[in-house]
Amino acid sequence: MHLCVRLSKVESSVIEVPTACPLRHPETHRRCTGRHFKLHQRFCPKRIRDLKQAKVMAHRYRCLKCKRTFRVYPKNVSHNQQSDALKALSVLLYVLGLSYQGVVDLLTALEQPLSSGTVFANVQAAGKQVRRIRRQWRKGQAGQVKVMGIDCTHVKCLSQDTIVAVATNILTGAPLTIEVLRAETAMQLTAWIQDLAKELGVEILVTDDADSMKIVADNLGVQHQICRAHVNRNVHELVAALGTKALDHPDRVPWELPAATVDQFIEDVQLVEDLIKGLPFDGQAQMTALATRYQGAPPPPQNGRASMWYRMRLLTLDWSENWGRLSLFQRWRLGKQKLDGTNNATEQAIGQCIKERYRTMRTYKRKPSILNVSSLIGWLWIQRTDYDLGTLVRS
């Protein structure tokens, strides 16, 4: 994974004057509303863990309303013992593929030892912060995401299969949300994505060719583009199986198809693949003609196997009915932007945000960790050069 981020340095000479009192009333626990402060003590030493500095000087201010004092630390230092730079470094090392213990070993070699629990806490806190930032970022995208892609993948959590769903902006490739679902059903997918699609103003949903995805698009009331890459691969495998069956051990021609022959069947099988790959302007008409030719093929008996004739009937009927979902990309334009007809952006997001880190792990232990780690990687993946990683770890 290639990331280009910046680790904030401790600026011991920069101490900002407070604008709000951070203290709470000891009995009511309400935050003090004081806005005026007096410098109470200028030099308050604080030992920190940092790659370059071991100690900084803080200032102590007195709130003129509640009369209590509090510390104000230099830039990129907080009440936490670690500096923001050390926190960010531990998070970056984990994102790049080291285990928690691997991060501990490396920081120990740099004479800044942290426990594996501390590194874990840093990573999880950064992931939670990313999820908060992403929610705010999505509000700024309201009505602007016209084409959204969704897909699901599977990871292990405590040795149990866990479904992780990802939604992306197809036109930019940016992940929009990552969520753990109980099941990969149309009902679950619709419940997960409907509010987001409405908020972002989605007009087109791009998915694989699963039947549940077609139901989701219909439930949302949006146009549906089926991923051509998935369809081409699946149709190629089915056509290869039907062609092999027809050449080696063809099924008997059913009496319901008096004009059918095995030679014609082989030609039609090849035609189906050519139509799916080429998507000609009259492709739907040709596919409908094929579906009409094989509509009389009888279904298999109970607990019996479908004949090659019936499988051809289902194949041609399916794509004659869903031709518009497959060829939508040919008709859609938004200014100079257009679709390529695939869900590659979502597939890439899954590979980078989820699978890339998951390959180096035995398994997840908590479902929130799946969301935190995947969201963190996905956010850093789309940031421009010189992104300040310290914004995700500041207390």
Primary descriptors:
395 residues; alpha/beta; 3-stranded antiparallel beta sheet; 44% helix; 17% strand
Write the layout of secondary structure elements.
Layout: E1 5-6, E2 37-47, E3 55-63, E4 69-72, H1 84-95, H2 100-109, H3 116-140, E5 147-157, E6 160-169, E7 175-181, H4 186-200, E8 204-207, H5 211-220, E9 223-226, H6 228-248, H7 262-278, H8 283-293, H9 308-321, H10 323-326, H11 328-331, E10 333-334, E11 337-338, H12 344-358, H13 367-381, E12 387-388
Parallel strand pairs: 1-12, 5-8, 8-9
Antiparallel strand pairs: 2-3, 3-4, 5-6, 6-7, 10-11
Helix pairs in contact: 1-3, 2-3, 3-13, 4-5, 6-7, 7-8, 7-9, 8-9, 12-13
Give the rounded overall mean pLDDT.
92
Fraction of residues in helix:
40-55%
Major sheet strand order: 7-6-5-8-9
The stretches of 5 or more residues where confidence is low (pLDDT under 50) are none
Which range does the strand content fall in? Answer: 15-25%
What radius of gyration results from the CA coordinates? 29 Å
Per DSSP, the total helix count is 13
Largest sheet composition: 5 strands, mixed
List the helices and strands in order. Answer: EEEEHHHEEEHEHEHHHHHHEEHHE
Which structural category do the helix and sheet elements fall into? Answer: alpha/beta
How many DSSP E strands? 12
Shape: elongated
Distance between the termini: 27 Å
